Amino acid sequence: MKDFKKEEIISIAQRENNQKRGYLFVNHLQAKHIPVSPSKALSLFQALAEEIDQHEKMTIIGFAETATAIGSGVAANCPYDVYYIHTSRENLPKENIVVEFKEEHSHATQQMLFCKDEEKMLFQSQKILFVEDEITTGKTILNFIKALKEKGIKAEFAACSIANSMTQEHRKNFLENDIQLYELFGIEQADCEKVFSQSSIVLEKQTEQLPKSIEYQSIFGKIDPRVGSFAKEYQKACETLAKKIYDMFEKKVGNNILVLGTEECMYPAIVTGVYFEKKGKNVKTHSTTRSPIVARKEENYPIFNKSIFESVYEKGRKTYLYNLTKYDTVIIVTDAQNYNKVGVKGLLKALKNYENDNIIIIRWKKDENFL
Question: How far apart are CA 225 and CA 34, in angstroms?
């Protein structure tokens, strides 16, 4: 915690066409919107894990999509092998759905919790910890807890976040409902709303060209935290994936590498980036996102360029990628099981816009013997 300073990590950016909340916090170290050294991202997640009261029979739930990697990192740093699940907006088998609830301020309000073994991971859990990148009112978490209680789940509830801008009234509401709060940084609401200049908006850069070299590879052994797993099992699977990618491509990549995740699939990209970093490469990592943010050319504004294209997961879904630049190699790590070819092509064009010509696309797949 002592190595992290709020003013160096958290910036305010403008949401695009969002009437419920006109701003969002952009975290420079969580590897979502802004490229960052993957080891710095993991250090931030570890710092948050150190803030919480950990419990042996605990289930950690991360929020899609921005906090999926944070939740994974917090869970991996627990001394006990806790369960980890993250919510999802993907279309998963209905038999695994536990609850649906609303994230009311979001660009995509519907959230779902799926679980392959809700008896062990939820009903037998003594503590359920929600992990967010930021908590503003806590309403989403309260909606979630209400839905879980209505299912008959009687665990103790808590929530942790990197940033927290809740008012004293909102915090009191959590306290009265016996919901513990943990955070790295508190932020005053008055600091959040800013007026930006219309003249400083940066428009999307477009091209119809594709990178010169595009290589596709499937790697098996995927574990899906959307339906729950032991945290350390998921961590080991991500590390195994990272080693396989390195062994396959170490001679084909340059020194400056971007490891790019896709939407909810952030953590495997971060872990892969750390592996390449340890081998002496200069690595950045971030991911595509469903969050629409205004790009601006303003001093200290965090988002300076923006690409828009269809999701690699689903036709018609708009996704974004921010702050691109040129790298020797871009490694895309995705768990999209069936590519939306239009989305993949759009992502490739976005990378080409910034002179990225050496692209490796890794699809992490579940193998035949996976249980």
Answer: 23
Say which residues have a Cβ less than 8 Å from residue 272's Cβ, sequence separation at least 6: 38, 238, 241, 242, 245, 246, 259, 285, 331, 333
Going by pLDDT thresholds of 50, 70 and 90, the confidence category of residue 107 is very low
Render pLDDT for 25-79 as a digit per residue (tens, 0 to 9).
899 999 999 999 999 999 999 999 999 988 889 999 999 999 999 999 999 999 9
Q: Do strands 83-86 and 58-62 pair parallel, antiparallel, or not at all (unpaired)?
A: parallel
Task: Answer whether 3's CB lies under 8 Å from 43's CB.
Answer: yes
| Long-range CB pairs of 180-184, under 8 A, 24+ apart, other chains included | 180/53, 180/156, 181/135, 182/48, 182/51, 182/52, 182/53, 182/158, 183/51, 183/135, 184/1, 184/4, 184/6, 184/44, 184/47, 184/48, 184/51
CB-CB contact of 116 with 96 (8 Å):
yes
User: pLDDT tens digit string along 167-184?
Assistant: 999 999 999 999 999 999
Pair 131, 54: CB distance under 8 Å: no
Rounded Cα gap, residues 294 and 320, in angstroms: 11
- On whether the CB atoms of residues 343 and 309 are closer than 8 A, the answer is yes
Nearest to 98 by CA among 116, 110, 84, 80: 116
Q: What are phi and psi of 202, to 5 degrees?
A: -100, 125
**Could you identify the residue written with the tokens 């988002």?**
303
**268-290 per-position pLDDT tens digit:** 999 999 999 999 999 999 999 99
Instruction: Give residue 102's Cα distance to chain centre.
Output: 18
Please state whether the predicted TM-score (pTM) of the whole model is above 0.70: yes
Residues 6+ apart with CB under 8 A from 18: 105, 107, 292
Q: Are 267 and 353 in contact (CB under 8 A)?
A: no
